[in-house]
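Case study 2.
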Amino acid sequence: MGDIEPEIETEISASQKMLSAVSGSLLTSLLVTPLDVVRVRLQSQPAISNASPARPPSVSSHIPQPFTNLPPNLGVTACCKEVFWVNNNAQYCLATPTTSSPTINGLSHTTTTSPADCAIDETRRKNFTSTYDGLRKIARNEGLPSLWRGLSPTLVMAIPANVIYFTGYDSLRTSSHSPIKNYVSDSYAPLLAGSIARIAAATVISPVEMFRTRMQATSGTGVFRATLSGLQDMVAAQGYTSLWRGLTLTMWRDVPFSGIYWWGYEATRNTLTDMRDRQRGRALDPQRSSTRLRSQSRSKENHTITLVDSFTAGALSGAVAAVVTTPFDVGKTRQQVLKHADDTAASAGKGSAMTTRPEDRSMPRFLYHIFRTEGLPGLFRGWAARCLKVAPACAIMISSYEIGKKMARNVNERRDGRAET
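Prediction:
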């Protein structure tokens, strides 16, 4: 009786598992992309001083003012008359006053905004203090559809990645030819199988993820063309291997995340299954495989129980894994989000200043640099947005996948005349 479930499990075809993974990917991407956009913006924006932006003590409204060493994606360049490079190294902005003529009570009033005021307003508009603040500002300043920016590359990335990831994990866990199934204990098998499956998936989709990350980090119009042009310039200057820039950091983030996630997911589901079996008067036999007994018990559960258990286990384990690996996510995002101006300067100047950027350091040194300059909050910047995205994403994805497999198993049982009455 304990050997029945493994046989049924192997009769779920690879195409059926892929279909289950695809359906989960579509649903997950639609629901969590806005949170992913905010997460990328929070992590890629420069650190803001606790002090309020200071205005110059005396600012003439008619004298052009310079802003040097402009931080990336602050939006200050919107206040500039000209933006150019000095020695291919430092960005230099020549700002002039801007005038507007609003009509109040039928009368036209001309107002002049100084460059300093413009820069401060743009900085406040472009920077987010929380997940909610990011959602609100993006929707208000860029339009509601901007929250789903990068959805197309997300789908292009998520579907093949999840197919490789979930079917690979299942094969490593259940295939009779898998060394993990044959030689690794049930306690540590999810940890190892999840890590290996993630390595394969991350390597395949790394270029698409870079495109999506840069696209989500960019504001304004013409984002797709600008991002594509920036990647083309980067490839021309640094070669095709630059498309895998940040893969090491991605591995540092995704491999431990996957190991922690699957280990936590299996442990939580096992706990829920054991609790339900004890309530029914059934207990695990120490002489028999606990994995097979639990799998057999789950095969008899209805769709509602399968959905609730997998959703709960996925959300809890996903949240824990997301918090633990947030520093690696911050490092990966900052390394991949490179502005088009930075790539152009690197290809033109190729000076030592461009080769000593913190983002070019090894992963431990780069994370140490963030910790030294921004403290612990810098390493965990965007953790709330990441958890709000990852926890429901994991829950939706794994529950969709488990329900899809259960439906496929039922179809196979009816087809083979083995459906239970």
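The beta strands are 65-68, 80-86, 90-95, 98-100, 103-104, 107-108, 111-113.
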